[in-house]
Amino acid sequence: MQKILLLGDEALAQGALDAGLSGVYAYPGTPSTEITEYIQASKQAEEGGIHCDWSANEKTALESALGMSYAGKRALVCMKHVGLNVAADPFMNASIVGANGGLVIVSADDPSMHSSQNEQDSRVYGKFALIPTFEPSNQQECYDLVQYAFNFSEMFHTPVLLRMVTRLAHSRSGVECKSPKAQNLLNIPTNLKQFILLPAIAKKNYAGLLGKQNDFMSHGEKDGWNTLTLGKDRKLGIIASGIGYNYLMENYPDGCPYSILKISQYPLPVNMLTRLAAESVELLVIEDGYPFIEEQIKSIIPTPLIIRGRLDGTLPRMGELNPNIVAQGLGIKVPDFNIVPEVVKPRPPKLCDGCPHISSYNALNEALSDYVPGRVFADIGCYTLGALPPYNAINSCVDMGASITMAKGAFDAGIFPAVAIIGDSTFTHSGMTGLLDAILDKSAITVMILDNETTGMTGGQDSCAFGRIENICLGLGVEKEHIRVIIPLPKNHEENVKVIKEELEYKGVSVIVPRRECLQVIGKKHRRR
Amino acid sequence: MKTDIILAGVGGQGILSIAATIGTAAVAKGLNIKQAEVHGMSQRGGDVQSHLRLSDKPIASDLIPQGQVDIIISVEPMEALRYVDMLKPDGWIVTNKATFNNISNYPEAEDIYNELKKYKNHIIIDANTIAKDLGSSRSANIVILGAAAKFIDMPYESFEEALMSIFARKGEDVVNANIKALHAGTEAAEKYIKG
Ligand SMILES: Cc1ncc(C[n+]2csc(CCOP(=O)(O)OP(=O)(O)O)c2C)c(N)n1
Ligand code: SF4
Predict the structure, then answer these.
(1) Contact at 8 Å (CB) between B80 and B92?
(2) Testing the interface with A: which of B10, B17, B43, B44 to mutate, by most A Cβ within 10 A?
(3) CA distances from B154 to A114, A195, B47, B51, B193 (A)
């Protein structure tokens, strides 16, 4: 069969489509965005009437998918790792109610924080919720594993987690596809109380989930996603998970002399681990992310084996792995390499020339020039780049929505004026509830909702806020006179400074909406025409 | 056959089109390929790179090991130097001469060229001017691909065929402009080597 070149994300998406998917629910976030975008562009999805519009945030996405699963159909949820924090409540409780139609939750981690605030490891969440977790190591496995995951989810009536990492999500390779399966028919759960988490039912469901753990594990021992290969040299046994396995094999082009346990399915296969331990003098764990396996095997393996990995410094505790780091961990000598000369200067990302956020920041900086600095609470999006010179315009960026609520807390503590900077997509993701808090509490903050009419940072996806920001603010209770729409253009600078200054001094909640479309999106529309 | 390539440039300079062309050519030849791209934050005018691996055997890692790159193909000269730690001793650097200066401490262009010339195998051509002279300033990236084509272990025609299939959708003029850019890059590289 002809192979097609697909990103890991795309292979996963195509695998889900061919598994009879009925809907994908997602909020954009690097490196998960391309899964949903692939489905949005797919003819197969269009013909199958597959749901693929963006959700307002990861929590609404997961809950909608759970509803689709309730109805007996297969649903996929995609997010970046920090999105799973937002969706943690439905995630933890979905594991207790279980699934009806297959429910696969994809969380894409970003070791080394290429485009993220942290490098949390989603596998920890999988264990926390006691649900099966899968970790593909290459593009073909992305395609195949998501299909297995859907079947597994239906077989055990449980949601399952599929963990991706940046390097796999954004790397292309040839993938062989199978013929597509039909979508499930509508099928309401036989037990109409299964999804009601009243304590009496929840206790029963939870006991059921605990009871399935052994089955989850025994499938991991025999279904072929975890494989144990005993080597000629028993000095070392290697446990390699996900793409860690690739970096290991890269170092042994003619075959690895040591025993290898390749892991792509959790809970960990205890029998395989015990067997490997019995056959080895020492163990090395190669995993991209937290020392997740390394920590667990200390309580699984009875003998006092030496276990090496990220915890003992054999591999670095943080950051993504690569073939060289793994070679060093294996004690393989890496050849000398050239030193990058000093003329090479860092080239950090920055706001595009002419970006509307530039005019917003220039106006804000001037409006604030008479106040002591340190009062601008920002959020996540292209506008976070306002942290860098020449703007140096913001003082915080923590998690989506935290701008408004941190400004509120800072005001409550006595900082006035306090400014919140939030993008349109971030506002509807998780800014609205914080704004309601500020309004009810009459906290005197100035909220600037930078409306570039798109989700810019992740490549220009439709924004749920489009065309409704003023009405949302009015509905929540912001006074009409204190909702000010401005056009962030250099020629409007003086006027915009004046508006901002007026609202800074207002002793209540005011909202300023600088509105101008993102240049990248304009460019994209233009090229399409 | 095995060729490990680093593609380098600044976000928006079209290194993914170079990758797509080489990738398409390789798949048509039945080669294995892995290509790690950079998406997200750094696409906003920051440095971007892609690891592109071609082989007639299975490829394990999506990332190329340090010191094992056969060719650095760069659309910007300072960006070519950013990855010299990845280059193997007899590897090639094929780079655009035209600088992309969007930072305040961008070095003197001459200093960059002098550093590049310290590597035994290098080609520095002004792809922007070559593309402009051809009347298609947007195909500077394909000019650079043309300059590097001879060092990638695939028949030259396979690049032409790949360009045809990639740009077919955009009409014959675009296909021809890109093939011309490819040829011009190859010629410029030959001239550069002859000195
Ligand atoms: C919980 C969570 N989900 C997703 C992301 C990824 N993300 C960062 S910024 C952003 C979009 C920002 O869009 P907007 O607020 O409109 O600002 P813009 O980039 O357009 O300026 C997204 C999706 C994240 N960091 N955290
Ligand atoms: S992508 Fe859009 S919002 Fe982001 S920096 Fe560029 S113009 Fe501004």
Answers:
(1) no
(2) B44
(3) 33, 58, 28, 18, 20
Pocket of ligand 1 (CB under 6 A): A 27-29, 58, 80, 82-83, 86, 380-383, 400, 423-426, 450, 452, 454-458, 463
The yes-or-no verdict on residue A131 having pLDDT over 90 is yes
- Among A114, A167, A171, the residue with its CB nearest the CB of B40 is A114
Sequential DSSP letters for A89-108: HHHHHHHHH--SS-EEEEEE
Q: Which of A34, A400, A451 to mutate to test the pocket of ligand 1 (most atoms within 8 A of CB)?
A: A400
Residue A527 binned pLDDT confidence (cut-offs 50, 70, 90):
confident
Which CATH number belongs to the domain containing residue B131 in this structure?
A: 3.40.920.10
- List residues bridging with A165 in a β-sheet: A109
Q: How far apart are CA A338 and CA B111, in angstroms?
A: 17
Domains in chain A and their CATH numbers?
2-211 (3.40.50.970), 227-329 (3.40.50.920), 356-524 (3.40.50.970)
Provide the number of structural domains found in chain B.
Answer: 1
Closest CA to B187 of B135, B132, B126, B138: B126
Name the residue range of residue B45's domain.
Answer: 2-194
> What is the number of CB-based contacts under 8 A between chain A and chain B?
148
Order the strands of the A160-165 sheet from edge to edge.
Answer: A21-26, A74-80, A103-109, A160-165, A133-134, A265-266
Nearest to A118 by CA among A475, A519, A418, A397: A397
Q: List pLDDT tens digits, range A467-522.
A: 999 999 999 999 999 999 999 999 999 999 999 999 999 999 999 999 999 999 99
Distance A351 CA to ligand 2 centre (A): 6
Whole-prediction pTM value? 0.97
Q: Whose CA is nearest to atom 8 of ligand 2?
A: A355
Helix (H, G, I), strand (E, B) or coil at B111: helix
Distances in Å between the alpha carbon of B73 and those of A28, A444, B82, B123?
Answer: 31, 54, 12, 10
Nearest to B106 among A174, A327, A345 (CB): A345
Question: CA B30, CA A442: separation in Å to the nearest integer?
Answer: 66
* Ligand nearest the Cα atom of residue A381: 1
Taking the CA of residue A144 as centre, how many other CA atoms within 13 Å lie in the half-sphere pointing to its CB? 13
Structure tokens at B25: 């050519």
ipTM: 0.95
- Rounded to whole angstroms, the Cα distance separating A79 from A410 reads 30
> By the CB < 8 Å criterion, does A9 face chain B?
no
Chain A window 424-463: which residues touch B at a Cβ cutoff of 8 Å?
Answer: 457-459
Beta strands in A306-375 (DSSP E): 306-308
Judged against a pLDDT cut of 90, whether residue B68 lies above it is answered with yes
Residue A6 confidence class, pLDDT cut points 50, 70, 90: very high
Which pLDDT belongs to residue B41? 62
A82 CB within 8 Å of a chain B CB = no
Compute chain B's Rg from CA coordinates: 16
